[in-house]
Amino acid sequence: MNDFSIAIHGGAGTILRADLTPELEAAYKKGLADALASGYDILQKGGTAVDAVAAAVLSLEDCILFNAGKGSVFTKTGGHEMDAAIMDGASLAAGAVAGVHSVKNPVLLAKTIMEKSEHVMLSGEGALQFAKQQQLQLESEDYFFSQFRYDQWQLVKNESGTSLDHNIQVDKKFGTVGAVACDAKGNLAAATSTGGMTNKNFNRIGDSPVIGAGTYANNQTCAVSCTGHGELFLRAVAAYDVSCLMEYKGLDLQQAMELVTLDKLVKINGEGGMIGVDAKGNTAMIFNSEGMYRAMQNSKGEKEIAIYR
């Protein structure tokens, strides 16, 4: 039996101890702990990496603190447009959804696209139509409303630009959630979900649902989920770049992720981070920002839940 492990993230950026009250810090850590447990329990019972990452991301989507699912930020028009992706490292099968609204758990829609359609990515109204056809749970706009996100949007809604912040009053924070896992059979998977940028316009889509940019998994190398300034992660094809460095240059997971996150992304002003796992169950959580909501657990008894650098 292989060592199994899971790592999760809940976003990265300017996350400073001074900006979080003890109560809010505890709430974020509980959100991370709950998601970690959801995924790890599946792995512990012999479940698949795909099911584990889906469960972990679903838990984060259901937590109003994170910018995905229930806690998604507001768009320019005052609605919600959510993106998600999932990839199976064993088969290279993948599913993704972009710009969807009303779907309670976009990660489940991405998983259903992977498992029950001939496509990889669906978007907008077509994706919603497919979700209805597959009887996935839908919610009214009220479900996605949070006062915190609404107040954020009010601060910037009359500006022409988008905002990258999780908390607009304290610089920059990139709200995305994700999970990577290696199961007991050595199979890998990655999943990522996001509500995107506050005040985003023109149906903007970031790196999260783009296979190879924000999400990638391949049993031969690694599984990676990214969080950060999506435009730069798209240009860098960040997640796949980690896999390439492992496959073609022989770097290990830690080395490859450090090269992409701390060097290549920094050179193009790509702020954020990523989590990764390889087929031996090794995990890495690397970021070039002030902080990243993150957690990991493995069958060797190691466990970590952290926020700050």
In short:
This protein has 8 helices and 13 strands. With 309 residues, it is of the alpha+beta class.
Task: Provide tags for this entry.
309 residues; Glutamine Phosphoribosylpyrophosphate, subunit 1, domain 1; 9-stranded mixed β-sheet; 8 helices
Secondary-structure blueprint:
Blueprint: E1 5-13, H1 22-44, H2 49-61, E2 82-88, E3 93-100, H3 106-116, E4 121-123, H4 124-133, H5 147-156, E5 173-174, E6 176-182, E7 188-194, E8 215-217, E9 222-228, H6 230-236, H7 238-249, H8 253-267, E10 272-278, E11 283-287, E12 291-298, E13 303-308
Parallel strand pairs: 3-4
Antiparallel strand pairs: 1-5, 1-6, 1-12, 2-3, 2-7, 6-7, 8-9, 9-10, 10-11, 12-13
Helix pairs in contact: 1-2, 2-3, 7-8
Task: Describe this entry's structure for a reader.
- By secondary structure, the chain is an alpha+beta fold.
- It contains eight helices and 13 strands.
- Strands 1, 2, 3, 4, 5, 6, 7, 12 and 13 form a nine-stranded mixed beta sheet that branches. Strands 8-9-10-11 form a four-stranded antiparallel beta sheet.
- Helix 1 (22-44) packs antiparallel against helix 2 (49-61), helix 2 (49-61) runs antiparallel to helix 3 and helix 7 (238-249) crosses helix 8 (253-267).
- It is globular, with a radius of gyration of 17 Å.
